[in-house]
Amino acid sequence: MAKKAIVDRRKCAYCGACVAVCNLFATELVETFLEINENCNGCGICVKVCPMGALSVAEV
Amino acid sequence: MFDVVVVGAGPAGSMAAKTCAERGLNVLLVEKRQEIGTPVRCAEGISKKALQRFVEIDKKWISAEVIGAKIYSPDRTEVTMAEEMAGNEVGFVLERKIFDRHLARLAAKAGAEVLVKTTFLSFERVGDRLRVKLKRMGEDWEVETKILIGADGVESRVGRMAGIIKTLKKSEIESCAQYLMSNLEIDENYTYFYLGNDLAPGGYAWIFPKGNGCANVGIGVLPSIAKANAKFYLDKFIEKFEIKGKIVELVSGAVPVYGEVATAVTDNIMLAGDAAYHSDPITGGGIANALSAGYHAGIVASEAIEREDFSANYLRRYDELWKADFGWKLRRNKKLQEFFLKLDDETLNSLARSIAGKNIRDTSIEAIIAELIKKNPSLLEILRSFLSP
Hints:
The complex is a heterodimer. Chain A is of the alpha+beta class. Helix content of chain A is 17%, strand content 30%. Chain A has helices spanning 17-21, 45-49; strands spanning 3-7, 27-30, 33-36, 55-59. In chain B, 34% of the residues lie in helices and 29% in strands. Chain B has helices at 11-22, 48-54, 96-110, 157-161, 230-240, 287-307, 312-341, 345-355, 365-375, 378-387; strands at 2-7, 27-30, 45-47, 62-66, 68-72, 78-82, 91-94, 113-115, 118-126, 129-136, 139-150, 173-182, 190-194, 204-211, 214-221, 246-256, 265-266, 269-271. By secondary structure, chain B is of the alpha/beta class. The interface between A and B is medium-sized, with 22 and 35 residues.
């Protein structure tokens, strides 16, 4: 089990705030599609900055 | 082989590409999205003076003109900063969807290549040049260039990959949510700002008129102190202030409130606009500085290419230009922001009361600080200690 950020695509407004604060380059915005890659360590900073509350950290 | 590759077709990138192309350079402007200007991530306000410095005004992308601003403290004490009369507009609320396309078109007209749906991936150094790896409509594509300008916004990859800037901390970024609302009954001659530690922790709420009863109604909060997400605070603001309107669009975004970066360059690379954290730490405004930075980066790029010197040492001329133009203001306003962050609601109220009803005939931060000091002389010493380096 590891911690990882997950995105609720129905809430995400694809602004890239999460991309800006991730120093692992784990989040990437492709048009309207937010990708979270294997670099994610579940630190949760993206959850704090997401204006929409679209991100959370879960055990995966 | 390009002289300059510009990443990001927002105001900074398009202005840089236009400036380079006008000086005869071979320029490529890439935008990762398929449409320039959308989705909007902006409250769209800009001062008339700042805009006129770099762009010829075209009504096609002006939504509304305002004569001033009204600021509300937590107990709703009103402070008005305005020109004497209507017809003497000081600010614009833009239609960024059209404005950004207009700027990209100006760059194209000047001779820049423009490509959409083209994403910057990485770069490597080849001699004194760069090989830039891009993804163009899903296909890998490499180009060589002498200079790379990163105007790729708050989430800049160029700047962080080049090691020019550090990733923003949650105390260095405003998390923002905004609705475009219709059916509003507001005086469309003003922009409106609402302060309060509960209302908008570390930020403010705004209403910027867009004409015909429409307005951008938004909020920015500082994630390091906010207890919930920006949309939560926005909905609470609308409820509390009984803003009766229909939501016709949702905008979300993030604004750097970093202050002045030490440098926005390295060998072969310059950053401009939000990518260089050029947005204002007090107002969050970024368009004016982005236009200025893009222009200066374009000028320095063309000089560097003429001299065949793409070293950081030469490109630091760009640092000198943007710092002299507005960098000093970012540095000062970062300190002012830190000062304002410490004020509780009661202090904000008493400061607002001290200058309420005064005729502040200028809509700048300087004007309001000057008025505050006039009415609260003890502030001067406190501010001095904050502003001293």
